[in-house]
Amino acid sequence: MPDTEPPHAVVSGASSGIGAAIVARLLAQGWQVTGLGRRDPGLDSPRYAHRQVDLLDATATRAAVAGLRPSALVHAAGLMRAAPLGALSAEDGRQLWRLHVEAASLLADLLVPGMAAGGRVVLIGSRTSGGAAGRSHYAASKAALVGLARSWAMELAPRGITVNVVAPAATDTPMLRDPARAGSVPKLPPIGRLVRPEEVAALTAFLLGPEAGAITGQQIMVCGGASL
Question: Cα–Cα–Cα angle for 30, 34, 35, nearest 5°?
């Protein structure tokens, strides 16, 4: 009896942080993974392929995913820019929107129509999608992911494809130490520590699996009590 092909996920932001943790989790569970990111993480796995791409470049993104027919899409690429009113940067706002929202929309538009029943989409959002002082542009772009996910979930439910948002609080990633967010220091969640990327990856992997087939259109917090 021939072996069945492993499920295949496309993961953006695969080079580091939450994206890298999701890649590692899926590989450990037997997935085939195509990673998208500006830097090749150099993973030594026959089931991992990296496509180097700047997701802010729509033309390059189209070329990077050409020919792919995954069973799952995870958009984990992200960046942080923070500023209070009076110091907002229009260019920072555009970059946040382009990476978080436009890149997610383009990847879904290119990849989801080819998914069969049982397909999965997970967008990595943020607990701050409900609003956060000094992070208005970031919060707005993450809130938009919820609108995308709920709309796509309604559209895709008849095809048996689910769409959800995983929304972490402050997570121990390189992005948290980005000098660009020096004026916006994250607060520790009530559990007394930062969220671990592996914890976000574990929930993401569950949502990609067969037992999560009845979960769709949801934003699920991984916040250590920060949203209480």
Answer: 115
